[in-house]
Amino acid sequence: MQRTVGATIAALLAVTIGGALAEPRGTNVVAQARGGAAAQAPAFQVDPLWPKPLPNHWILGSVTGVAVDSRDHIWIVHRGADSLTARTENGLGTDPPTAEECCRPAPAVLEFDSAGNLVSSWGGPGQGYDWPMTPGGIAVDAKGNVWITAAGWPEPPAARGGGAGRGRAAGAAGAGAAGAGAAPTPAPAPPARPFDAHILKFSPTGQFLQQFGKPGTSEGSAGKATFNRPAGLAFDASANEIYVADGYTNRRIVVLDASTGAYKRHWGAYGTAPDDATLPPYDPAAPPAKQFRTVGCVELSQDGQVYVCDRQNNRIQVFRKDGTFVKEVIVSKGTLGNGSVWDIALSPDAAQRYLFVADGQNHTVAILVRETLAANGTLGSGGRWPGAFYAVGSVAFDSKGNLYTGETFEGKRVQKFAPRR
Amino acid sequence: MTSLGRRRQSLDMQTRIIGITFVAVLLALGLSARALDQAAAQGGTVQAPRFEVDPMWPKPLPNGWLMGMTIGVGVDARDHVWIVHRVDTLSANEVGAAQNPPTGTCCKPAPPVLEFDTDGTLLHSWGGPGQGYEWPESNHGIFIDHKGIVWLGGNVGADAQILKFTQEGKFVAQFGRSGQGKGSNDTVNFGRPAKIFVDPRQNEAYIADGYLNKRVVVIDADTGVFKRYWGAYGNKPDDTNPGPYDPNAPPIQQFRTPVHCSDLSVDNLVYVCDRPNNRLQVFTREGKFVKEAFFFKKTLGDGAVWDVAFSKDPQQKYLYLADGKNERVNVLLRDTLELLTSFGDGGRQPGQFFAVHSIATDSKGNIFTTETYEGRRLQKFVYKGIAQVPRNQGVVWPGK
């Protein structure tokens, strides 16, 4: 997600990889030379002991957003109890409790310092705003205010895993009741709730500041006052604008006045007018779709380019700030299911030379050269051990070049990867 | 034995008071947080085996392989670590490369039985349906006996059999037949057997039987012939449904499924995990009831007593108890069953647990754990000797 302070990390880019590195966990960057060029890419090493254990027997649900603020504090938002299996995982958070010692969901928003200490925790329903049914992305603006998109869609628990949001898997990974040899406890039907269609802004301490949009209210992808399941957002401080990836249902980028939330402009794939007509399922053999399929993220570069995750089309599209289409790249074209382009982080060197792409379907972070959009290696593979991923859906850099990742579905982690020097 | 619980609470309180005193004194002296931690540990006044998680063990699996619910761990005579996991619990999201058509480049299920060397390198992998035997609907529990034979149980549906394989995965024997189980007084078949422990001196196998039956069975390890069996308190087992567990009710006279472990100590005592009853029952080899202890008695659902392993000193002074509901490993004094200390907590990071299901020790005293549900890991906890440790250690990270 968005960082607000640029920093030069020349050292990060000075690392050259040749041949196989003897890495723990085998999850570090493997450079892939293209066109005979020297293999050169940033290399990383997971910090298995970051962050520090949470207090109060708190555990994370599916993590849907990660951001870094100007102090290099790391912010995450996760789904909490909504994504925890009551019977097996939430022993202290149910009524009555089923366990004596562990566990309960942590508050939805957590702030860590760079050493991994928990600094603050807040979030959840409150007066004057609509807490998301399912949070999407998180971003911290230049003033330190925390923005969260609301990306949820009502669905019965039995269908959990059927949605398209960052927290929702396309195949079912449920309670796994067979593990204890007991039948799963049927979950109660969820309360009828309108779909998420809004953006929330809080102070760093969690005080509600603003809400743009209302749950259950959408005019579709041409709407000027509404959203539909926005997935993420980015700031253009110089223009006092925010760019919204809108979203899991709408198919557009929409730009707002950052102070008032007033509509300024929007566009769809290739910079055309978005169309909400049903798309056939993604087919890697078919020509690229003329519309966005899932607008999962938006990021701005310091040279004024807008990078958009078109998740289930497996592509990144690049625009100018006025919505003029510049170019696109397909990432792991054969990917089905949830798609390959979930989130993007720009490397924090002055030139922002690389794009780091969270690919939660292939369980890796793909690295592209920003200028050419050429593939330049991957970081990580599937698994539950440190440095491995299950559904890595969020990526963010701090000013020192540390990469932070968030895993949704049953990954339920935030991890730190430090640059190797 | 609620007195154990009360005593634990009382000791916790003493620990806190002593700890607060230490903190106050040390703060006055201006000492570091690390020194405070150490002082608090000493204030805990409990001497016990100490462990630290090895966050980088084992090494990554090859071939993009993933483990599903990992529901058994054993250590062989070479200190190789064996696990068994449930291949079919991996979701389509995780094993995209195994879908038809593939949905991604990652990943595939690993074979159900995996053998790791002491460095954590995967050596061998095998398992699954084959000729001449009935692979369980849901493999569960793994044990490597004194002859090097690998034993497996199964805990779902028609599973009523035990399987024996060589370490290369060659079928050796099957005891009991799938679908033929006739309850807790059957003398040929099992009822979703959970775990096996082989007594090398008598060449007998102790079967925690199981997820359907409510008993411990002892068989001849070579022939599979039933030698004896018993229920809770040494009673004849009774399959009558006991209803849900009630922490306020008197202890019931039968095991409550699953009967999840039945491990034999060097002094010939059988430790039985009566999982949802939150109790450990101890018997002689012949099934005579010796004693019992309760742990985290208010735990509902899956229960608190999942699996045990013995410490590696000659006397097996300590007993390690995996609790996949409260997410911790409890260290007991085996003689008294007193809970000395616990380590671990909930979570997905090293040293944390989601449903720590199985536990085993190697010859060096290291502990290995596996996690079921969505935990799906094998973890190593390095033995660091006997030390003063807090009663509740939390996550045991290196250098902490």
Report the sheet-strand fraction of chain B: 35-45%
User: How many β strands of chain A by DSSP?
Assistant: 26
Strand content of chain A: 25-35%
Which class best fits the helix and strand makeup of chain A? mainly beta
Order of strands in the sheet with most strands of chain A:
1-26-25-24
Distance from first to last alpha carbon of chain B: 34 Å
Please tell me what the overall shape of chain B is. Answer: globular
SSE string of chain A, helices as H and strands as E: HEEEEEEEEEEEEEEEEEEEEEEEEEE
Low-confidence stretches of chain A: 1-39, 157-165, 167-184
Q: Which stretches of chain B are low in confidence, meaning pLDDT under 50 for 5 or more residues running?
A: 1-36
Characterize the structure shown.
The complex is a heterodimer of chains A (421) and B (400). With 421 residues, chain A is mostly beta strands. Chain A has one helix and 26 strands. Chain A has one helix spanning 10-14; strands spanning 44-47, 58-59, 63-68, 74-78, 104-105, 109-112, 118-122, 135-140, 146-150, 199-202, 208-212, 230-236, 241-246, 252-257, 263-267, 295-300, 305-310, 315-320, 325-330, 343-346, 354-359, 364-369, 375-379, 392-397, 403-407, 414-419. In chain A, the strands form seven sheets. In chain A, strands 1-26-25-24 form a four-stranded antiparallel sheet, with no helix packed on it. Chain A has a four-stranded antiparallel sheet with strand order 3-4-6-7, with no helix packed on it. A four-stranded antiparallel sheet of chain A has the order 8-9-10-11, with no helix packed on it. The longest helix of chain A is centred in the N-terminal third of the chain and has 5 residues, at 10-14. The two termini of chain A are 24 Å apart. Mean pLDDT of chain A is 86; it is low at 1-39, 157-165 and 167-184. Chain B is mainly beta and 400 residues long. Helices cover 10% and strands 37% of the residues of chain B. Chain B is built from two helices and 26 strands. Chain B has helices spanning 2-29, 33-43, and strands at 46-53, 65-66, 69-75, 81-86, 108-109, 113-116, 122-126, 139-144, 150-154, 162-165, 171-175, 193-199, 204-209, 215-220, 226-230, 259-264, 269-274, 279-284, 289-294, 307-310, 318-323, 328-333, 338-343, 356-361, 367-371, 378-389. In chain B, the strands form seven sheets. Chain B has a four-stranded antiparallel sheet with strand order 1-26-25-24, covered by helices on one side. In chain B, strands 3-4-6-7 form a four-stranded antiparallel sheet, with no helix packed on it. In chain B, helix 1 packs antiparallel against helix 2 (33-43). The relative contact order of chain B is 0.14. Residues 1-36 of chain B have low confidence and may be disordered. The chains are: A mainly beta (421), B mainly beta (400). Chains A and B meet through loops of A and loops of B.
